[in-house]
Amino acid sequence: MRQFSRQSRSGRLLLAGGLVALALGMSGCTRIRTHQGYQVDKLLVDSIQPGIDNRASVEGTLGRPTFAAQFGDQDWYYVSRDMRALAFSNPKPVAQTVLRVRFDAAGNVTAVDRMGLEQVARISPSGDKTPTLGRHRSLLDEIFGNIGAVGAGGMGGMGGGGSNTGGGPNGS
């Protein structure tokens, strides 16, 4: 009878350990959702009116922009992006909003534009090597290619006799 209870205890421990391992393994397959950037509030964004608002009122309503135009201070951008990833995969954008507020020279709002995920450019790199100009050398050329090049003329050093006694700027 004791032998049977030992086997059932070890079976229970093995089953419990298996369930714990399965639970931990399944937790790695959960979806991870993240938000990056500005929290878009539709009511606040809709309250910005061209011809009525200026830089100060936009900053008071929406806050500081994510970034401003590179040349000049005519456009402010508010960027918001929702991302999703599965376990250890690369995150993919699910939704994106880029709000552009345009100003005139006096600082008054001239337009408010919205752009979404359709404006995101998708690029795919070609291959895993970057093409470069120059010679293509093998591994053996790289290792043994400099044999005999040490001390060759024109490779640095003093070149001629090693003395500077001429009429140059340092010698007299």
From TrEMBL:
Entry-linked InterPro entries: BamE, BamE-like, BamE_dom
Provenance organism: Sphingobium quisquiliarum P25
Domain of life, source organism: Bacteria
Upper taxonomic lineage: Bacteria, Pseudomonadati, Pseudomonadota, Alphaproteobacteria, Sphingomonadales
Any one Gene Ontology cellular component term annotated for this protein: Bam protein complex
Protein name (record): Outer membrane protein assembly factor BamE domain-containing protein
GO biological process, one term: Gram-negative-bacterium-type cell outer membrane assembly
One example GO MF annotation: protein-macromolecule adaptor activity
Annotated Outer membrane protein assembly factor BamE domain residues: 37-112
Keywords, ordered alphabetically: Cell outer membrane, Membrane, Signal
